[in-house]
Amino acid sequence: MRTSRLEAFSDGVLAIIITIMVLELKPPSGHQLSDLVHTSGVGLLTYLLSFVYVGIYWNNHHHMFHLVRTIRGSVLWANLGLLFFLSLFPFTTVWVEESHFARTPVVVYGLNLLAAGVAYVILQTVIIRQQGPDSPLHEAVGNDLKGKISTAGNVLGVLSALLIPHIGATVAMVCYACVAVFWVVPDRRVDRVVQQHEV
């Protein structure tokens, strides 16, 4: 089957996830900039981080399916697995915000990021297995060093929150943010292969 319905459904789910997250933001209780910082400052920061992560997944998902022509049922299920973990972002984001970066919510948030990353790798792997070792996606992914580094960064964040007293949660959020920045730069591997196959 073609990929158009899967892509349209995924785009819709990601748009809803972003909408839910922004609706969770609390408006300031007053009319001064200080009111914005005190009432919504933490929420804006956590929303921004989660928004960037959703944007990264949307971007990479979009690029990946440029290299996929047809899919089978297992790809649909793997894609649903990814969307499931992404759909938990509003919940874990709000928990981090309302707890003001308490250790347990920060750990759960990191585990959510890790689970989404693993689900993306599973989706990628299922597609490559269906297309075969000579598939354009396999060529683009290669040994996926970028994916391995980002997984290590999120694991480091979770461990920091668990093991470092007092500042562990802050260190963890910095690790999660660094991974996001690492992925904000477009993945040129996929871009290069897409351009080759469009020629």
Architecture overview:
There is one protein chain. With 199 residues, the protein is mainly alpha-helical. It has one domain. It is built from nine helices and no strands. Helix 2 packs antiparallel against helix 4. The chain is globular and about 55 Å long. The mean pLDDT is 88.
List keywords for this structure.
mainly alpha; single chain; globular; 199 residues; 9 helices
Protein topology:
Blueprint: H1 4-23, H2 33-64, H3 73-87, H4 89-99, H5 103-131, H6 136-141, H7 145-163, H8 168-184, H9 188-198
Helix pairs in contact: 1-2, 1-3, 1-4, 2-4, 2-8, 3-5, 4-5, 5-7, 5-8, 7-8
**Rg (CA only):** 18 Å
Q: Tally of extended strands?
A: 0
**Main β sheet profile:** none
- Domain module tally: 1
Order of helices and strands: HHHHHHHHH
Cα shape: globular
Q: How widely separated are the two ends?
A: 24 Å
Beta-strand share of residues: under 5%
Low-confidence stretches: none
Task: Provide a concise account of the structure shown.
With 199 residues, this protein is mainly alpha-helical. Helix content is 80%, strand content 0%. The protein is built from 9 helices and no strands.
